[in-house]
Specification:
This protein has 246 residues and is of the alpha/beta class. The protein has 10 helices and 10 strands. Strands 2-1-8-9-10 form a 5-stranded parallel beta sheet. The longest helix is centred in the last third of the chain and has 13 residues. The chain is elongated and about 55 Å long. This is Uroporphyrinogen-III synthase.
């Protein structure tokens, strides 16, 4: 514990890592920006024969606009406010945002309406099966379009080396894939076991139960799941937990 905790953040290697770094600094932390995700666009667009189309990220919103997607009367759903804002910024109307900003929250919001409906899920190649399975169980005919692939950027892994050396006070994981890529980077550096051991003395914060489950399966102890599925809440609660007297 320290008054100025060193906090690793793994947001995608774009403006999101910059904003996350600024936020952590504003919260009184020393940020360690270590992007674990980079976007490779597929140039695909959602099918046009759906009743509902579901978007799960800001990136997806930007990519469909760049690819020229035009809605044809579908009910447009966003997993949370950041995705909804990105869609609106690109000129799309958003019809539904769930109360809980997760895949299970989307399922809960749509389950009473999609029996017999065609639902298009447009997202990355690493989306949670919770969304597809839940919609199918609700009676929907589900089709998934992969808008982009998420890969680990070259040169990532500074935070893993810091954890292995005992020099990391906290880490903010925003998806199961950030956990996997973080541990892959540690393995490449030959410090995977030491990194996991180092995290035992750090505060590990995550967004969502799926990320918590992935971390646990990989041997990483999770200290907190953000009370809301936003990076802002995750950052604030992780910094609080890693700061003396909190």
């Amino acid at each position: 514990m320290t008054e100025t905790p060193t906090v690793a953040v793994f947001r995608p290697d774009d403006d999101r890592i910059e904003r996350a770094t600024e936020l952590l600094a504003e919260l009184g932390a020393e940020p360690v920006p270590d992007p674990m995700l980079a976007v490779e666009a597929t140039d695909a667009v959602p099918r046009t024969d759906a009743d509902y189309v579901v978007f799960t990220s800001k990136t997806g919103a930007e990519l469909i606009a760049a690819a020229g997607w035009e809605p044809t009367g579908e009910t447009v759903c966003a997993i949370g406010p950041a995705t909804a804002d990105a869609l609106r910024a690109e000129g799309y109307a958003v019809d539904l945002v769930p109360e809980e900003y997760t895949s299970s929250g989307l399922v809960a919001a749509l389950s009473d309406a999609v029996d017999g409906a065609r639902v298009e899920v447009a997202r990355s190649d690493h989306g949670s099966p919770v969304l597809l399975d839940g919609l199918e169980e609700a009676g929907a005919y589900v089709h998934e379009t992969i808008l982009y692939r998420l890969v680990r950027p070259e040169g990532s892994g500074e935070s893993a080396r810091l954890a292995a050396a005992g020099d990391l006070d906290a880490a903010c994981f925003t998806s199961s894939l950030t956990v996997d890529h973080f541990l892959e980077a540690a393995a490449e550096a030959g410090v995977r076991e030491a990194t996991i051991a180092g995290l035992e003395d750090a505060v590990v914060g995550v967004i969502g139960e799926p990320t918590a489950e992935t971390a646990a399966e990989r041997g990483v102890d999770v200290d907190l799941v953000a009370s809301e599925a936003t990076f802002e809440r995750l950052a604030a609660e992780t910094v609080d937990a890693a700061t003396d007297g909190e």
